[in-house]
């Protein structure tokens, strides 16, 4: 219920467009499909997904003879569910470790909501009884370290501070040592999101990963890319660029509460093949939810 409330911008936009479509078409025809495509593309669902969906719907309508648009809504939800699930690979859940800390690397451009998301994740892990450490590895952006320290305080978790302009790998090294000695369950590592200089970013992330892997072979266990849902197709191409600088195991889609175009989740799944693992639904520390495709689809379309 709360979830529907927080996604009300996207929900009301898509539902009212669907309502309008159903009231104007008594039977599904080519014009109906074209309008349906427009609605979904406007909602940032992404052209590839939309085309696949409507191609399948056309076949379904021919096969089953269903011609009432109202009867198609359930079919649309089911097909979008299948398209999403078939597109993505890798676990939908976080790859949590037992007996050693789960190391999570957070990446994303400035302003996407990375710091806020780290704070929210810290709070969730903490409330599950886990011992959480933050590593303030964004030594590039002015104020990033202080801002993360504020979130550490809010969530009441420990933090390893870097120095502005310093080497982020040194912060990661210190954090891994502290994690070892302090029996931490989760280490959340902040990084700088300088996509402007891809080569530098790639080298920096590769070095960070090496340092972490040396301390905990196989770590980081997750590399989460934070994407701002309100940036639509730009967010998608940004995400694609990040896949070229580091292997990404999951996406956190922030600010879904602030967009009427919530379909971007489906575009990311389809275009990048990476599961969305969390969604941000507000600025408060509790406004983060594990992503469930079925809840999401029923929230938007039903
Ligand atoms: P960073 O530069 O990527 O670390 O971004 P911040 O964490 O500083 O977030 C940038 C802005 O986005 C801040 O004003 C946050 O409050 C806001 N923000 C982050 N996540 C969400 C979200 O899920 N919903 C909304 N409405 N705002 C968010």
TrEMBL record:
Keywords tagged on the record: Cell membrane, Cytoplasm, GTP-binding, Hydrolase, Membrane, Nucleotide-binding, Receptor
Subcellular location(s) per record: Cell membrane; Cytoplasm
Binding site for GTP: 108-115, 190-194, 254-257
Domain of life: Bacteria
Molecular function terms, GO-annotated: GTP binding; GTPase activity; signal recognition particle binding
Keyword Nucleotide-binding listed: yes
GO biological process: SRP-dependent cotranslational protein targeting to membrane
Keyword Nucleotide-binding: yes
EC number, as in UniProt: 3.6.5.4
Signal peptide start and end residues: none
Cellular component terms per the entry's GO annotation: cytoplasm; plasma membrane
Residue stretches making up the SRP54-type proteins GTP-binding domain: 275-288
Chemical reaction(s) catalysed: GTP + H2O = GDP + phosphate + H(+)
Membrane topology: Peripheral membrane protein
Family recorded in the similarity comment: Belongs to the GTP-binding SRP family. FtsY subfamily.
Assembly: Part of the signal recognition particle protein translocation system, which is composed of SRP and FtsY.
Biological role: Involved in targeting and insertion of nascent membrane proteins into the cytoplasmic membrane. Acts as a receptor for the complex formed by the signal recognition particle (SRP) and the ribosome-nascent chain (RNC).
Name the record gives this protein: Signal recognition particle receptor FtsY
């Amino acid at each position: 219920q709360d979830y529907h409330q927080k996604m009300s911008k996207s929900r009301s936009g898509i539902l009212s467009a669907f309502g309008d479509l159903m009231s104007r078409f008594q039977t599904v025809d080519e014009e109906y499909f074209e309008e349906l495509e427009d609605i979904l593309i406007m909602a940032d669902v992404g052209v590839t997904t939309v085309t696949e969906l409507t191609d399948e719907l056309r076949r379904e309508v021919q096969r089953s003879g269903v011609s009432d648009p109202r009867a198609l809504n359930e079919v649309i939800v089911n097909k979008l569910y299948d398209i999403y699930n078939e597109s993505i690979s890798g676990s939908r859940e976080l790859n949590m470790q037992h007996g050693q800390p789960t190391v999570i690397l957070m990446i994303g451009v400035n302003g996407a909501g990375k710091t806020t998301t780290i704070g929210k994740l810290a709070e969730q892990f903490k409330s599950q009884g886990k011992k959480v450490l933050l590593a303030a590895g964004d030594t590039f952006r002015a104020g990033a370290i202080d801002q993360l320290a504020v979130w550490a305080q809010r969530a009441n978790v420990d933090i390893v501070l870097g120095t502005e302009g310093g080497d982020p790998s040194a912060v990661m090294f210190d954090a891994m040592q502290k994690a070892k000695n302090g029996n931490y369950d989760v280490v959340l590592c902040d990084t700088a999101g300088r996509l402007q200089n891809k080569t530098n970013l790639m080298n920096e992330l590769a070095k960070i990963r090496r340092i972490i892997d040396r301390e905990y072979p196989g770590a980081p266990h997750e590399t989460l890319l934070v994407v701002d849902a309100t940036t639509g197709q730009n967010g998608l191409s940004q995400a694609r660029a990040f896949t070229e600088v580091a292997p990404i195991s999951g996406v956190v889609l922030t600010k879904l509460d602030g967009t009427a175009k919530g379909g971007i989740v489906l575009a990311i799944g389809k275009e990048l093949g990476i599961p969305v693992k969390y969604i941000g639904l507000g600025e408060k520390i509790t406004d983060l939810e594990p992503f469930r495709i079925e809840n999401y689809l029923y929230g938007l379309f039903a």
